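Researcher: I'm preparing a figure for a lab meeting and need a structural model of a single chain. I don't have an experimental structure, so a prediction will have to do for now. The sequence is pasted below. Please return the structure as tokens so I can convert it later.
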Amino acid sequence: MIGRLNHVAIAVPDLEAAAARYRDALGVKVGAPQDEPDHGVTVVFVELDNTKIEFLHPLGENSPIAPFLERNPSGGIHHVCYEVEDIMAARDRLIASGARVLGDGQPKTGAHGKPVLFLHPKDFDGTLVELEQV
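Model: Understood. Here is the structure written out token by token.
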């Protein structure tokens, strides 16, 4: 059902510092910050040959990333994102198997302009999973 790993998301307390560290120390291409108000985050993508790293930083007072950074002030891995061909079919199959979809169960538009859903971390070995339709 799932395809390739799309990205690993890392919540960071300082977007500029994280971007500079990866760009300067690791020599990778780092994109510009983009606000995602529907998700309450500002994101920066690090482009790798085989996948991406997504830095997440809170956007607004009700950001879902803020509590994560309160618990992990230095930041840390927040979620992994896998690609799926049909997000609605994937959602229905997961719900039928007992997995919980976060929110209202309807896809939102993600940072790549494609439909995304998040799955409860307690159903996936403590890992928040994002599905992105490709």
